[in-house]
Amino acid sequence: MYYVYLLKSKSNGQAYVGSTKDLKKRFQEHNTGNNKSTKSGRPWEVFYYEAYAKEKFALSREKRLKQYGKSLGILKKRIGFDD
After folding, report:
1. Separation CA 63–CA 4 (nearest Å)
2. Which pLDDT tens digit goes with each residue over 28-66?
3. What's the pLDDT tens digit per position in 3-17?
4. Is CATH 3.40.1440.10 what the domain over 2-79 is classified as, yes or no?
5. Distance separating alpha carbons of residues 6 and 65, to the nearest angstrom
6. To which H or E segment does residue 75 belong?
7. H or E stretch including 9?
8. 3-state secondary structure of 20
9. Is this prediction's pTM over 0.90?
10. How many CB atoms are closer than 10 A to CB 31?
11. Domain boundaries, the chain
12. Helix, strand, coil shares of the chain as percentages rounded to 5?
């Protein structure tokens, strides 16, 4: 399985979107500071994720969420990210 995930910073409330094949390992990398993009927002929580059978679909969804702010905004509203 491949995953698209939405992290929420416990320190500043910001969101981060990514994709991976190993969600547990990737989450640990974010919280240990091994990712330059998320180092300053630690600690993180996995707020939401989606599973895909094929990598190409996960990458397509991640790209959509990162490139089109409206897509991410709709998702955040649907899952209650800012509540």
Report:
1. 10
2. 999 999 889 999 999 999 999 999 999 999 999 999 999
3. 999 999 999 999 999
4. yes
5. 10
6. helix 69-79
7. strand 2-9
8. strand
9. yes
10. 18
11. 2-79
12. 45, 30, 30
